Amino acid sequence: MNFTHPIAVFDAGIGSYQIARKIAKRYPTQDIVYFADRASFPYGGKGRAELLATLQGTLARLADYRPAAVVVASNAPSVMVLDDLRATSAVPLIGVFPPVRQALAASRTGHVAVLGVDSLVESAEIRAYVAGEASGGRVELVAASDLVALVESGAFVSDPDGTLAAVRAKLAELPADIDVITLSSTHLPWLANYFAAAAPALTCLDPADTVVEALAPHVRPGSGAFVTLVSSRPGYDLAGFREMTARLGIELAITPV
């Protein structure tokens, strides 16, 4: 298929699909390559060096499509290794970051939480990032790789009762005065309805809209093609991905890679 300098969007699975679709809606003639790198799931279980090597390999693969820009649609690598990736990339890279300032601005109590994969919330990089964004507010870093796994496995579709129980258990870990959380894995917004059911008064922020607007200078009119690439491994195979997207009512022409 011929492309006119597509926007490439990727993370370790289904998480980045919503960002890719938001880009397609905002820029309808933009060609898009969406890569669900399930073979590398989870990014959140990798140390910094392994994560950097994994993403360098992914960017090399996507270079074949001559992208105008690449969205690293995952909070952990955006916070932890994006600067290193940019140092060796000839293509503009757009990251996804926890909207800490927006969370504190929306909070009545000044106490908010960032939910993300374990490697993100345990990293020195996220602590430095939060320190620069918090401006006097209180920010809790909350490990949520268990919730991310429910999305990538498809359990959030096949086991709604179990998923709601897991979300309630996670929220029970938080201090009682937290009134805003950031869903700082691109998988977590898939659970927005569960968070709303578990805690109707809680505000949940998704940074996807900021990413879409940041792409404006890189848009190149094309045919509006949307190509889906999916890698796989045992436990995260192509059949499971197809079943999950079918249950979600998502129709994708998938190219295995």
UniProtKB/TrEMBL annotation:
Any Pfam family hit: Asp_Glu_race
Top-level division of the source organism's lineage: Bacteria
Keyword Protein biosynthesis carried by entry: no
Keyword Isomerase recorded: yes
Sorted UniProt keywords: Isomerase
PANTHER family, sorted: GLUTAMATE RACEMASE
Official protein name in the record: Aspartate/glutamate racemase family protein
Organism: Crenobacter oryzisoli
